[in-house]
Design goal:
The complex is a heterodimer of chains A (197) and B (197). Helix content of chain A is 70%, strand content 0%. Chain A is mainly α and 197 residues long. Chain A folds into 2 domains: 3-52, no CATH class; 88-192, no CATH class. In chain A, helix 1 (3-14) runs parallel beside helix 3 (34-52), helix 5 (88-114) crosses helix 7 and helix 5 crosses helix 10. The longest helix of chain A is centred in the middle third of the chain and has 27 residues, at 88-114. Chain A is rod-shaped, with a radius of gyration of 37 Å. The N and C termini of chain A lie far apart (91 Å). Classes of the chains: A mainly alpha (197), B mainly alpha (197). Chain A binds chain B through residues 7-8, 11-12, 14-17, 39, 41-43, 45-47, 49-53, 55-58, 62-63, 66-67, 69-71, 73-76, 78, 83-84, 86-87, 90, and chain B through 1-3, 22-23, 25-26, 29-30, 33-34, 37-38, 41-42, 47, 50-51, 54-55, 58-59, 62, 128-129, 132-133, 136, 147, 150-152, 154, 156-157, 172-173, 175-176, 179-180, 182-183, 186-187, 190, 193-194, 197.
Chain lengths: 197, 197
Amino acid sequence: MRCERARKWISDDLDGRLAGRRAEALARHLRSCAACRAYRGDLALIQVRSQAQPAPSLTPGEWTRFERSLERELGYAPSPGRRPALVPAVRTRLAWVGAGIILVGATVFFLVKGGPPELDPAFLSYEGSLGQIDREIRDNPDLADSFNRLVMASIGDTIRAGQSDLPIDLLANPDFLEGWAGETWEDIHNSSGPNAP
Amino acid sequence: MNERMDDRNDEPLVDLACNGRPEAFMELVRRYRERIFAMIYGMTRDRSDAEDLTQETFLAAYRALPRFRRTSSFYTWVYRIGVNTSLNFLKKRSREKDRADFDENILPGDRGAAAFPSPEASSARGELEAKLAEAVDALPPLFKAAFVLVANQGLSHAEAARMLGCTENTVSWRMHKARKLLQARLRPFLNEVGHEM
């Protein structure tokens, strides 16, 4: 056997790819060839030293920096607390709720400012507020159009607030929410749910 | 809505990432970044380059996700992208630096022996590892890729062939030639360490 072929087989042998007759032929050759034995010894040492090279890694801080950088490249910027982004359906629903609250709040505000607070308790229910509006605009296309534009603008503002990763202030403000009774929340929920009129 | 990503398998995460959920892709990044980084570091021997190329690898994977045909695992697919990214980098660096330290036709003991000072005055075993890293770094890119994947990362010839897009026989020949070059270059140190051991 020529030494060149033997050395190729030595390499295969180190990678566990030599068996059968080839392995036997190589063993025979090595018994009679000191140069190839020395060569095999050198390769075995290189193999051991290569495997002994410590596997490097980055520090936790470096990995964090790595992640932030990659997220920027992906156009993904999670909030500091890693809160998952709202899916569009939830965001739209919240926008409707927000719009309803804004509408009711604005109406209450102008009524209070405009005269004595003689509010009908039923006003804060769906029937007394959104339901009333619904009935009024149903047969008046111009009024319906104006109302829709107002609501859509309000929804747009709320969605933009949601997309900017900032909390929707109205819902995040505990002082605002404190003023609402459980019944009111139920009405708002019903008016924005899938079975809403 | 607080969806946990870290208890999901790779496949659903890939599905989510394909559907525009980068947080799912980031979970995949966290799973495999160390292994990809280690492989790329083996190729580049430079932490900073390895970090950049790891990021480049994942970015390329994210952009190519719609074309991921699922004929292999996500990890294998990303690993292959990492290998290609590293190879491109090495080829570019090789051209830029015009490094021809290693030539396939180099005669054992010729340039290799002249490239290093006499090992007699040094701690040969400690120095061997540094010289080995240097010698591996100077291998031609394709030989280096095969050597790093098989000898450093412990891949079989079949696995390395899949990563490199070649046949097992090609990997076998590249390993043989890489070892031959390394042995020629490191012979003085190998002799020294061999006598000590």
